[in-house]
Design goal:
The chain has 393 residues and is α+β, with helices and mostly antiparallel strands. It is 30% helix and 24% strand. Strand 4 (199-204) and strand 5 (207-212) form a beta hairpin. The structure holds zinc ion (ZN) (2 copies). Residues 191, 193-194, 213, 215-216, 220 line the site of one zinc ion (ZN).
Length: 393
């Protein structure tokens, strides 16, 4: 953790507390977040692990009165932009003008205090007194997390649109123990290793490192008799159900965003968004290509040659299609407006692909008729191949 970290990171936002929060509020919020994001409760979730680290880092500073004062002081100076104006006059415009830790490299040497004792505050107060060094920009309460969900729709529901109840499971605070993990009637006790601080400090040479206490996993307390509901974790899985409207024509693989339907924000902050990934189950007859429905229909050789009327199903009825005499295999017929009908009335088509089937076996009568047919039919146009064929004979 460097002094640059202190300027760039908003530890209050990380812990979801106001800048004016009491040390009790900070501790409480920290314990809650540490418990929720603890790797033991989120095995194999790198996001939770990141969060746990960030929360621990923030608490190592804000949970310590002295460090918190230094942090506030530093952020009020550098967060206000006062220093940036000075620095860019020196030819380094924009952004963070330099690594602030450079400034303290000499002063900090040989002691374990980050800023060479009280020197930091004095130094900067004298440079910037009267210079617009106001409080750091306040941030609103933390926004709720985005939630991802997956829904499988029937083919016809996806074509026509459908409203479905969606049950979401999300971590929440246990109502039995109100999140402290202790059996009702008992209380968690302060961790004997870190004396309730949740962090332990280790000195190595001129540096000191703070890390989450291993004994209590950074929570600061130990539960002796576990809450029967949440087994001491303080968290339970809560379910909520909401009705989601899927518009007509929603496609497989589409992602629908429902603004503000994710997890609620903390202490009045805005809610996150809900992202619903749509899977569409295939239909046994129809396929989809955008707003067009597709259908493959087999016809006989005789039908292709002589022409016929085909009665085919649509999603809500039937339609008769004329197959003209002399239709080749693979031709696509179009039934206009029989595809996906959008809310605004625009509609796709039903595309019918004709597949001329060749019988694997024929009766003696059919064979005789076909041989008679062959005698009456000019040969297929293969003259253009002859020259190449002769090369090899
Ligand atoms: Zn509980
Ligand atoms: Zn501890």
């Amino acid at each position: 953790m460097s002094s640059k970290d202190w300027i760039e990171k908003d530890y209050y936002a990380v812990l979801g507390v106001e800048k004016s929060a009491s040390s009790d509020e900070i501790k409480k919020s920290y314990r809650k977040l540490a418990r929720e994001s603890h790797p033991d409760h989120n095995p194999g979730d790198p996001k939770a692990e990141e969060r746990f680290k960030a929360v621990s880092e923030a608490y190592a500073v804000l949970g310590d009165e002295k460090k918190r004062r230094e942090y506030d002081e530093m952020r009020s100076l550098f967060g206000s932009g006062a220093f940036r104006r000075h620095a860019s006059a020196g030819g380094q415009p924009g952004g963070m003008p330099f690594d602030v830790s450079d400034l303290f490299g000499g002063a900090a040497g040989g002691t374990d205090t980050r800023f060479g004792g009280g020197g930091f505050t004095d130094l900067f107060s004298s440079i910037f007194s009267g210079g617009g060094a106001g409080p750091a920009r306040a941030r609103g309460p933390a926004r709720g997390r985005d939630v991802e969900a997956e829904v499988a729709l029937d083919f016809e529901d996806a074509v026509r649109g459908v409203t479905l109840p969606l049950t979401l499971r999300a971590p929440g605070v246990c109502d039995t123990c109100h999140g402290n993990g202790a059996k009702p009637g008992t209380q968690p006790v302060a961790c004997p290793v870190c004396q309730g601080a949740g962090v332990t400090t280790r000195n190595q040479g001129s540096f000191s490192f703070s890390e989450p206490c291993r004994n209590c996993q950074g929570v600061g307390t130990i539960v002796e008799e576990k809450c029967p509901e949440c087994h001491g974790t303080g968290g339970v899985t809560k379910t909520r159900t909401l009705n989601v409207r899927f518009p007509a024509g929603v496609a497989d693989g589409q992602r629908i965003r429902l603004a503000g339907r994710g997890e609620p924000g903390e202490r009045g902050g805005p809610a996150g968004d809900l992202f619903v990934h749509v899977k569409v189950r295939p239909d046994e007859l129809f396929g989809r290509s955008g707003d067009d429905l597709t259908l493959t229909v087999q016809i006989t050789f005789a039908e292709a040659v002589l022409g016929t009327d085909l009665r085919v199903p649509t999603l809500d009825g039937t339609v008769t299609l004329r197959v003209p005499a002399g239709t080749p295999s693979g031709r696509v017929l179009r039934a206009r407006g029989k595809g996906v009908v959008r809310k605004d009335g625009r509609a796709g088509d039903l595309l019918v692909t004709l597949d001329v089937v060749v019988p694997a076996k024929v009766s003696d009568e059919a064979r005789a008729a076909l041989e008679a047919f062959a005698e009456q039919t000019p040969p297929a146009a293969r003259e253009h191949l002859d020259a190449r064929v002769r090369r090899f004979s």
